[in-house]
Each structure stands twice: as C-alpha cells, then as structure tokens.
C-alpha cells in the first residue's frame, strides 16, 4: 500500500511539473485583430543573439519593412522568459508580431504569436498587413 501511494504521488508530481513547463497558447486572433492589439508588426533579419540562451534573450535585428510600430524601437526584441520562447536563428528573416505587454520599454515575442519565418508567410497575409498599415496611415 505504501508503494502504491508513493508511485501515485510521484506521478502526480511529474504531471504537475510537465503541466507547469508546457506552453499553452490561446487561439490566435484574426490578422486584423492581432494587428490592432500588438505594438509592432514588421519584417526583420536576425543579425546577432547570445550563443548562450538565458532568458530573457535579447535578439538584435535588422529591420526591413514596418507595417506597424516605430522603426527605431524595433531593432531589439526580447524572447519570452518561459517555454513559449520563439526559436530565432541568426541570418533568417522573420515576420514579427511583437508586443510590449510586459514592459513599456521592450518588445517581446513568443511562439504563441503569429511570428514566423518570412518564407512561411503567405502572400495573402503580407497583402492584408499592407492594407491594414495603409488604413492605419502607415504607408
């Protein structure tokens, strides 16, 4: 009986650890809603990042096209401080949806956003972002 209780408690503990370390994302908003909600939407190439990935990780970017946001503030972003960390790679170009939800002075990105490699972005998404930017007076 003691062994059964010990195994049960060990499994419950393991389940709690696994649940605590999982990244749970809410369903994505529509592109228009997400565009309105986030602080910045833009394309950029990763030019530098630390080789040792401590969290939060500061990613240095070369900004290409801005759909929303202040170009000067977009050259550095922070990755999430948990298991929702987005896997950026130096030399790759991304379509980034960034937010300053956690800090008014830093933009954050995580894997729950629409952020993706630019080559994975569909033409329709980029066209819609262009329209949303024009509607917002960006271009």
Automatic annotation (TrEMBL):
According to the UniProt entry, the coiled-coil residues are: 112-139
* Entry superkingdom: Bacteria
Q: Which UniProt keywords apply?
A: Coiled coil, Signal
Name of the protein described by the UniProt record = Tissue inhibitor of metalloproteinase
| InterPro entries assigned to the protein according to its UniProt record, in alphabetical order | TIMP-like_OB-fold
Span of the signal peptide: 1-22
Gene3D superfamilies according to UniProt: 2.40.50.120
């Amino acid at each position: 009986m003691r062994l059964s209780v010990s195994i049960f408690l060990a499994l419950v503990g393991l389940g709690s650890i696994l649940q605590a370390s999982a990244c749970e994302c809410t369903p994505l908003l529509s592109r228009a809603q997400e565009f309105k909600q986030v602080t910045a939407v833009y394309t950029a190439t990763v030019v530098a990042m630390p080789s040792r990935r401590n969290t939060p990780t500061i990613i240095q970017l070369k900004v290409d096209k801005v759909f929303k946001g202040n170009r000067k503030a977009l050259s550095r972003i922070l990755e999430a401080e948990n298991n929702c960390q987005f896997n950026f790679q130096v030399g790759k170009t991304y379509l980034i949806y960034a937010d300053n939800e956690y800090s008014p002075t830093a933009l954050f990105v995580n894997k729950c956003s629409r952020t993706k490699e630019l080559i994975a972005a569909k033409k329709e998404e980029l066209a819609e972002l262009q329209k949303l930017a024009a509607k917002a007076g960006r271009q």
